[in-house]
Inverse folding.
């Protein structure tokens, strides 16, 4: 996918700055702004647990999986009882596995499973950790520790804290089982119970796109954007849905521009990826000079982001 938020491992870029004991708020701000070059330059020579953890997140965002894992492992070694560190290391192992050759991917994926489970063990009330481990159980085969009954159990546990997330987890299980009416029903229940439903409208838009119901996808994206108090990153995700659905490219451009100008940038939707996405859309629209400019803007913020580098080289 062009944006890192995949069904498997990808939803893990959400809420990145939450629930962390922050040692350096200035670095967290750099990550939220998507200024990865600056964040890495500040962190790379530090050896404390929090700096290594934040550095692993910067490497994760720019898809430097090996570097992310190395820093994540060091952070966990220094602070072994921090559930959030284990959660992030699980995500880093997960993406490394997803981008490895089959000979090594299975062993790395098992490490991800172990870290997810350790995060839940350390913080049983963490909805974020339970959501991630449920996603692993949903997607991974039984030989790698997956299992839909395990995912359903996590949904039952999450229902105690967040009913909307519980319905989201059950929707993903139903989708895996190809029980599509049930999956849609669970997503609509999540929307009905969520305090901030824009996120779940976009989950429903993704569901429609994957089913080929593109008109429904477009309508649902508009509904998400119409929600009162919706966060700025809704623009980012809405643009991604339109791009992946090959619909309304001018609107997708407008949404990304609004996001970049919003003052509400978040680490889960970093500015360098917004610029990269704009480049991708401009390419599809046949506007190559504009695409080049956006790829250059992406690399100015994250020079090691290979997707933008390769896209730029393709046009020059």
């Amino acid at each position: 996918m062009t944006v890192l938020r995949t069904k498997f491992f990808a939803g893990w870029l959400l809420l990145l700055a939450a629930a962390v004991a922050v040692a350096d708020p200035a670095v967290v701000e750099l990550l939220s702004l998507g200024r990865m070059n600056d964040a890495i330059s500040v962190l790379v020579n530090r050896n404390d647990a929090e700096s290594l953890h934040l550095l692993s997140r910067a490497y994760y965002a720019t898809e430097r999986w090996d570097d992310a894992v190395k820093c994540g492992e060091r952070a966990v070694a220094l602070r072994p009882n921090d559930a959030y560190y284990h959660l992030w290391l699980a995500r880093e192992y997960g993406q490394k596995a997803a981008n490895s050759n089959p000979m090594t991917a299975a062993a790395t994926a098992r490490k991800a499973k172990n870290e997810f489970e350790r995060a839940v063990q350390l913080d049983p009330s963490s909805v974020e950790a339970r959501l991630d481990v449920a996603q692993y159980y949903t997607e991974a085969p039984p030989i790698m520790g997956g299992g839909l009954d395990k995912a359903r159990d996590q949904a039952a546990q999450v229902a105690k804290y967040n009913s909307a997330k519980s319905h989201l987890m059950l929707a993903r299980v139903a989708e895996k089982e190809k029980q599509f009416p049930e999956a849609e029903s669970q997503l609509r229940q999540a929307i009905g119970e969520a305090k901030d439903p824009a996120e779940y409208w976009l989950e429903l838009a993704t569901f429609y796109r994957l089913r080929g119901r593109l008109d429904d996808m477009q309508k649902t994206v508009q509904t998400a954007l119409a929600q009162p108090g919706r966060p700025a990153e809704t623009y980012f995700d809405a643009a991604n849905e339109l791009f992946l659905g090959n619909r309304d490219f001018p609107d997708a451009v407008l949404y990304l521009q609004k996001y970049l100008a919003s003052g509400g940038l978040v680490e889960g939707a970093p500015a360098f990826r917004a610029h990269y996405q704009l480049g991708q859309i401009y390419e599809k629209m046949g506007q190559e000079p504009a695409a080049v400019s956006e790829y250059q803007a992406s690399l100015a913020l994250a020079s090691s982001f290979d997707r933008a580098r390769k896209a730029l080289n393709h046009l020059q």
